[in-house]
Amino acid sequence: MKGLVITSKGIEDVAVIEIKELINANCKIENACVIFDFENFRELCLLCYKCQSADKIIYLAGNFEFKNFFDDLGKFIAELDLDEWICDNNKNFRVECIRLGSHDFRSIDAEAKAAELIQKKFRLKGVGAGIGNYEILFLIYVVDNKCYLGIDFCGFNLNKRSYKIFLHPNSLRGTIAYALLRESGFEKEEVMLDPFSRDGVIPIEAAFYASNFPLNYYKKEGFAFLKLKLNMDFEEFFADADKMIKKLRTNIHSYDCMFKYIDYSRKNAKIAGVDKQLNFSRAELERLDIKFKESSVDRIVTNLPSSRNTNLDKIYNEFFYQSAYILKKSGTLALISRLPDSVKRHAETHNFIISKEKDVWSGKQLLKIMVLKKKNI
Q1: What pLDDT shows up at residue 132?
Q2: What is the pLDDT of residue 87?
Q3: Core-most of 46, 283, 298, 334, by most CB within 10 Å?
Q4: What is the mean pLDDT of residues 195-221?
């Protein structure tokens, strides 16, 4: 059987790593998504429960390239085999469409046409947009001239973190923060620091990962897969997944120079259920060498300031100066930057080199992930 993880463009390789860790599946990277094999529906449900890099997770019925979308969609649905899902008629269903790229049709038009075709073929009862009393949620994912169609196992957007209540204006998506963490090479027992924590999204995602705490622990009742006939004991499924949680004090540090944002981070972490796994502190950049011993930090992972209203040269200079002191020789800096040229200039001054650089998209916003290491001097 095939599944599809929809993810942010640019972090598909991180999604592959996570899928393999969670269910040991063979994966194929495509544009802003990953196709993977799975053996049973329990694996698909586990991804929904724990996957930090996914926007959506679907049972993939199939995919096709198109020239005329509606004509090709009609041919595809006419040949669609969903007998194992639709064992009796008159089920309620809904269709959602997500598009990436430029198209001569709207998502709402694709939803309406697909609903008409599915209803005609399988004699199901469609429900209106926004109504939640469906039994099957079909998802159409259109990327440029390729269309994927399947059954949504989540029922909600996994990238919308429910813990993000207290927000910084420059907050990161949880999926992007997780990808940045994994690009850093962070291992679960290591010392990690975010010195610009803001609303805490990077440390919180690190705590989920380090403690095996399920991302959707507090959303067990909301999954679309609960409405499907999967021949599973869902109570037992969640209990088994929760046995993997490690209740430990990690070495993940959430720092910021403003009490307001440390308060934001602590409150969001409490909502997420991982506040006990984090270390919070208000700290000026200039005092990091007092907070940490020389060469004692494995990973520094952060979203660098980019506001033109601040003295960025001063901030970047101090950041790299302090990082050079507290970071281990084998350690890494993993940064999200909107000003890569400025980062490179200050990094060079303090004897850091870029080991990896990649573009990622948060919706339509282009961001730059940069991973840096100390030069061998």
Answers
A1: 64
A2: 59
A3: 334
A4: 96
Q: Chain-wide mean pLDDT for the chain?
A: 93
Q: Which amino acid is at 108?
A: I
The one-letter amino acid at 224: A
Structure token digits, residue 187: 């291992």
Q: Bin 90: left if φ > 0, else alpha if -120 < ψ < 50, else beta.
A: left
